[in-house]
Amino acid sequence: MDPFQQMTDWRRNMDHFFGEQFWNEFEHIVKPTIPAINMYQYDHEIICIASMPGLRDLNKIDIYVDHATLELKGAIDIAYTGGTVIKDEILQGVFEREVTLPFPVRKDKVHANYRNGLLIIHLHRLISEETNRSKVSIQLDDDD
Known about the structure:
four-stranded antiparallel beta sheet, mainly beta, three-stranded antiparallel beta sheet, Immunoglobulin-like, 36% strand
């Protein structure tokens, strides 16, 4: 009997017993999140490098920036067919990853490049030209 089929049957039985949402709480422990990300902070910039092997269609990846949040959505699909899988360590599948940035970034100045299986996202610090400064009035208290 195929050991992977036994795992699938076991998982299906556990889903039936506990409910399908039960495993969502443990998924990050059992399976690391994808894509794997390295992030580098500079004075006014952030470089985010995401591992995305086998990406052929750049339209299958969505990048969103909102204030101090970077969100990546898409799918990693190596799509190698033929033969029997004997080792399966490269993480793939549909993903939705949200990363908190160390500071707010500009939405109008985000650059993304894909090279050698890496998605490189260059973000620039938001330095607001508007000021929230307001004058505070001082009241004189009488000593009476």
